[in-house]
């Protein structure tokens, strides 16, 4: 029975995106364990894995735990776990894990897969920061058997910057979406109307929603500034939590749009909020391959997005409108047109091929093939 360790910096990443993979692999005969940092969500993922391990790393780059305690903990876990495959996600956990793998005796090293959910070097980053991130990825790439990228720009950048050799690079379109789950039903449409009623927003009032963590790279400030310029009727919902919540509330007050800005926090089910919207908005500086955009399009709700990596290839053509990130006037002009965009079953049908390529079924099959290839390589290495 093959053994896998799934690694993330925080367990909310595992809970939000990776549980279908754990369930599928365990049904297929794998033993699947998880390692992640300390968060309340750690206990929420326990039932989905054969074991869950806490690692003392954090999302703060200069944290001493990331340099001292976490590498030692990972090294001990890797030695005792005797894993065939270690699949890492998120930059800090992935860098520490790959360093720990490199420190093991060669005969004890598992095959390592790293999924880059959007490289931290990107066209809107500074030259110095991009160079530093790329250097770290190149170094960690030495201990990476397969680098999975989830958009074409990251594939091209990985090749150009020689992060790993071409034969170790794999392009997969995202991490998968359950298209049956994200289908507009009468029940969901009724829940969407109920949400509008609770917020005091009439059925014909334009409403845009952004589903994203409240962090700088999601660029909520541009949306608030565009909301102020777009006229007095437009409302915006912000779904998600994060360190910028208070700052965004203050900014909405300063711009005079607080009464039209609805911070809904983290929702267990975002579908009613998306369906309540005239369009969804994602003005991010960079993405991997946006799950929020895929969910919106699958529900038949058009997207106004930043023309950037991880958004452009999903929205263009026919999925909505793209604007330069960080350009409030351009975003305001786009928001003024959202009522004219195609939506509903017509939009979903138009994007059917694109959506099916990103379905969870397609991505599970792609990962099965990837893992089988790595197991065959390990078997050949043992024989020789």
Automatic annotation (TrEMBL):
SUPFAM superfamilies: UDP-Glycosyltransferase/glycogen phosphorylase (SSF53756). One of its GO terms (molecular function) is glycosyltransferase activity. InterPro entries: Glyco_trans_1, Glyco_trans_4-like_N. The keyword Transport does not apply. Residues 22-179 form the Glycosyltransferase subfamily 4-like N-terminal domain. Keywords: Glycosyltransferase, Transferase. Residues 195-352 form the Glycosyl transferase family domain. Pfam families: Glyco_transf_4, Glycos_transf_1. Belongs to the glycosyltransferase group 1 family. Glycosyltransferase 4 subfamily. This is Glycosyl transferase family 1. It comes from Cellulomonas aerilata.
């Amino acid at each position: 029975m093959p053994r896998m360790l799934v690694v993330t910096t925080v367990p909310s990443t595992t809970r939000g995106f990776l549980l279908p993979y754990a369930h599928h692999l365990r049904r297929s005969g794998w033993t699947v364990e998880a390692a992640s940092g300390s968060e309340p969500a750690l206990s929420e993922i326990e039932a989905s894995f054969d074991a869950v391990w806490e690692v003392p790393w954090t999302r703060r780059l200069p944290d001493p735990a990331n340099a001292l305690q976490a590498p030692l903990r990972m090294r001990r876990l890797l030695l005792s776990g005797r894993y065939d495959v270690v699949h890492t996600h998120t930059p800090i956990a992935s860098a520490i894990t790959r360093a720990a793998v490199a420190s093991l005796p060669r005969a004890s090293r598992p095959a390592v897969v790293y999924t880059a959910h959007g490289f931290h070097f990107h066209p809107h980053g500074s030259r110095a920061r991009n160079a530093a991130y790329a250097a770290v990825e190149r170094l960690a790439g030495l201990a990476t058997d397969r680098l999975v990228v989830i958009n074409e720009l990251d594939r091209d950048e990985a090749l150009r910057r020689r992060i790993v050799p071409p034969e170790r690079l794999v392009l997969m379109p995202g991490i998968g979406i359950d298209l049956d789950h994200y289908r507009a039903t009468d029940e969901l449409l009724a829940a969407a109307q109920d949400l509008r009623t609770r917020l005091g927003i009439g059925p014909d009032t334009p409403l845009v929603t952004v589903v994203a963590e409240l962090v700088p790279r999601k660029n909520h400030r541009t949306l608030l500034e565009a909301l102020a310029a777009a006229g007095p009727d437009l409302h915006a919902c912000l779904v998600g939590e994060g360190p910028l919540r208070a700052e965004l509330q203050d900014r909405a007050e300063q711009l005079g749009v607080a009464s039209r800005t609805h911070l809904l926090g983290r929702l267990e089910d975002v579908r009613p909020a998306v369906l309540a919207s005239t369009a969804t908005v994602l003005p991010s500086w960079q993405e991997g391959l946006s799950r929020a955009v895929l969910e919106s399009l699958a529900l038949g709700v058009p997207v106004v997005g930043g023309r950037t990596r991880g958004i452009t290839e999903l929205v263009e053509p026919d999925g909505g409108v793209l604007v330069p990130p960080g350009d409030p006037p351009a975003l305001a002009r786009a928001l003024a047109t959202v009522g004219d965009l195609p939506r509903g079953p017509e939009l979903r049908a138009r994007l059917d091929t694109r959506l099916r390529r990103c379905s969870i079924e397609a991505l599970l099959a792609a990962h099965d093939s990837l893992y089988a290839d790595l197991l065959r390589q390990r078997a050949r290495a043992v024989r020789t």
